[in-house]
């Protein structure tokens, strides 16, 4: 069952900004102020307990799930597919997650959060190679061109504001000109590793 409670509660529990809130918003500012404080009535006075190795693996796996908005079933499926490939399992796992269409839309600097990118995809606002795709988990490929299905999409307030944001950093494997995005290379695991220890996630599923 997908979690539908307060998003800031999850981020505070994990002790890291998971990108649930739009950067620069009041809600995001409140989260950053309380990020080091665990949720709950006694959060400010409660110390974070030292975690066992198994608990650390679980927490990293949960952070990865929340970061990319995937279910346990989906993440486990990505791990199994990654483990069947020759090479570094962590790299392949990262690729499967990064190449999700909702993530590509977000990474290209079209929306402020992955949740809003997922909403655009599900509501039929996104085309891949001029074909409408409404499945967030769709795996984009090198050379794919991602555009809006309607001109009016660019006028959605949060989309318009994000497209005009000059400070957004778009990863090297993507490029965007106006409202047209293109996947020019295969993604790596470097960006994910800045927030998540993928080795612990692999260890969790390898038990």
Automatic annotation (TrEMBL):
The keyword Ribonucleoprotein applies. InterPro entries: Ribosomal_uS4, Ribosomal_uS4_bac-type, Ribosomal_uS4_CS, Ribosomal_uS4_N, S4_RNA-bd, S4_RNA-bd_sf. Keywords: Ribonucleoprotein, Ribosomal protein, RNA-binding, rRNA-binding. GO terms for molecular function: rRNA binding; structural constituent of ribosome. It comes from the Bacteria. SUPFAM superfamilies: Alpha-L RNA-binding motif. The keyword Acyltransferase does not apply. Residues 2-98 form the Small ribosomal subunit protein uS4 N-terminal domain. GO terms for cellular component: small ribosomal subunit. One of its GO terms (biological process) is ribosomal small subunit biogenesis. Belongs to the universal ribosomal protein uS4 family. HAMAP family: Ribosomal_uS4_B (MF_01306_B). Part of the 30S ribosomal subunit. Contacts protein S5. The interaction surface between S4 and S5 is involved in control of translational fidelity. One of the primary rRNA binding proteins, it binds directly to 16S rRNA where it nucleates assembly of the body of the 30S subunit. With S5 and S12 plays an important role in translational accuracy. This is Small ribosomal subunit protein uS4. It comes from Candidatus Roizmanbacteria bacterium RIFCSPLOWO2_01_FULL_35_13.
